[in-house]
């Protein structure tokens, strides 16, 4: 049996940014300058798609374990709240071809370190940089919170992850990508409204299937986040700060071509995501998340992703 290697690899490209590079609810939240954040993020993704195999009922399935190590440093940049982040993904994934009459066959698997991402972010208006004393005074003033802010970030991903040109799945992508993003946040007491828009630009992968050239058009990412404070009262004197969120993610464009031949695979994919955040200690936080594809093109996978984030603030 023969499978379309070209279509398989191109479809897998859209799985990569969802966990490692998507923004999250309250991702632009103000933190006192001089603080650091370290996170361990884990997500398990399972996805399926039909193939163009001549065997009726054939499917491709991807199982992907992703662990991301994330470090953030917050600082004052000319009076504006700013931050620098570094993300390093570690992946373990398996691609399976299945048919009801012929069973399942693993056609690609790889484990290794993925491409690192560097992020610089800053405020445009609202959310001024605050030291610890100013931060505490601001958030303990007892006044109703009605704040709006606009922020920007620049994501740069370097092609240093594990990449084998003839493999159907890879930890790295063997190409640079740059993603400028703009964010608008409005806080109304316990409710946060956020919208993000970003465009990812990609260099060519010149080792596609060994000797080919893989190109990708810019990919537009749209996000909308709604989150609400839901503090959990354990005792009359003990309350755990918490919030819950619902997010919508959209991925549009990003058509690919190999050796000048278009794959006709532009994305118009949408997903819903939910988060539950718990601040279990002044230095520690825990978050659960789940993301489900609600609309996708035939060239993309229908995916489910579930995971958690462990956060240490120091």
Task: Write up what this structure looks like.
- The chain has 3 helices and 19 strands.
- By secondary structure, it is mostly beta strands.
- It has one domain: Lipocalin (Beta Barrel).
- A 12-stranded antiparallel β-barrel has the order 1-2-3-5-6-7-8-11-14-17-18-19.
- Strand 9 and strand 10 form a beta hairpin.
Give a concise summary.
Helix content is 7%, strand content 60%. The chain has 314 residues and is mainly beta.
What is the element layout, followed by pairings?
Layout: H1 5-13, H2 16-20, E1 36-50, E2 59-77, E3 80-99, E4 103-113, E5 117-125, H3 132-139, E6 146-157, E7 177-188, E8 191-202, E9 205-208, E10 212-216, E11 219-229, E12 232-233, E13 239-240, E14 242-253, E15 256-258, E16 261-262, E17 267-278, E18 284-295, E19 302-313
Antiparallel strand pairs: 1-2, 1-19, 2-3, 3-4, 3-5, 5-6, 6-7, 7-8, 8-11, 9-10, 10-15, 11-14, 12-13, 14-17, 15-16, 17-18, 18-19
Number of strands: 19
CATH architecture: Beta Barrel
For the biggest sheet, the summary is: 12 strands, antiparallel, barrel
Q: Report mean pLDDT, rounded to a whole number.
A: 90
Backbone CA Rg: 21 Å
Order of strands side by side in the largest beta sheet? 1-2-3-5-6-7-8-11-14-17-18-19
List the defining traits of the structure above:
single chain; 314 residues; mainly beta; Lipocalin; 12-stranded antiparallel barrel; 4-stranded antiparallel β-sheet; 3 helices; 19 strands; 7% helix; 60% strand; globular
């Amino acid at each position: 049996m023969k499978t379309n290697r070209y279509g398989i690899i191109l479809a897998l490209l859209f799985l990569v940014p969802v966990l490692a590079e998507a923004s999250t609810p309250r991702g632009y939240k103000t933190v006192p300058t001089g603080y650091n954040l370290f996170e361990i993020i884990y997500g398990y993704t399972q996805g399926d798609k039909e193939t163009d195999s001549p065997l009726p009922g054939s499917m491709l399935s991807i199982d992907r374990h992703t662990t991301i190590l994330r470090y953030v440093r917050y600082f004052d940049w000319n009076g504006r709240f700013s931050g620098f982040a570094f993300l390093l993904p570690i992946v373990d994934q398996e691609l399976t071809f299945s048919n009801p009459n012929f069973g399942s066959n693993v056609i690609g698997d790889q484990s290794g370190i993925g491409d690192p991402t560097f992020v610089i972010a800053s405020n445009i208006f609202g959310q001024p940089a605050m030291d610890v004393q100013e931060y505490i005074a601001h958030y303990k003033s007892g006044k109703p919170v009605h704040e709006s802010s606009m922020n920007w970030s620049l994501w740069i991903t370097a092609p240093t992850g594990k990449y084998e040109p003839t493999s159907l799945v890879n930890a790295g992508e063997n190409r640079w990508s740059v993603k400028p993003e703009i964010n608008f946040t409005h806080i109304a007491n316990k409710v946060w409204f956020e919208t993000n828009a970003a465009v990812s630009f990609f260099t060519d992968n010149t080792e596609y299937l060994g000797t080919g050239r893989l190109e990708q058009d810019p990919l537009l990412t749209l996000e909308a986040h709604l989150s609400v404070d839901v503090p959990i009262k354990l005792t009359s004197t003990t309350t755990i700060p918490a919030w819950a969120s619902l997010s919508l993610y959209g991925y549009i464009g990003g058509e690919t071509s190999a050796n000048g031949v278009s794959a006709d695979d532009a994305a118009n994919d949408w997903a819903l995501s939910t988060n539950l955040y718990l601040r279990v200690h002044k230095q520690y936080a825990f978050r659960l998340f789940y993301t489900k594809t609600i609309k996708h093109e035939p060239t993309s996978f229908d995916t489910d992703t579930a995971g958690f984030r462990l956060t240490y603030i120091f």
